[in-house]
Amino acid sequence: MNDQSSPTPPPFEPPFSAPSGPPHGSAFRDYHDAPPPPPPPLGYPPFEHRTQALATQTRPAVPPRRGRAGFAAAVVAAALVVGGGAGLGGAAAYDALNGDASASGSSATVTASPVVARGTDDPPAQGSVEQVAAAVLPSVVKLDVSGSQESGSGSGIILSSDGLILTNNHVAAVAGDGGTITVSFADGSHAAATIVGTDPLTDTALVQAQDVSGLTPATIGDSGAVDVGEEVVAIGSPFGLDATVTSGIVSALDRPVGVGSDGQGNATVYPAIQTDAAINPGNSGGPLVDLDGHVIGINSSIQSTSTGSGEAGSIGLGFAIPINEVLPVIDQMKAGETPTHARIGVSVQNVQATGGALVVDGAQISDVGSDSAAGQAGLQNGDIITKVDDTLITGSDSLVATVRSYRPGDKVTITYERDGQTKTVDLTLDSDASPTS
Question: What pTM was computed for the model?
Answer without folding.
Answer: 0.73
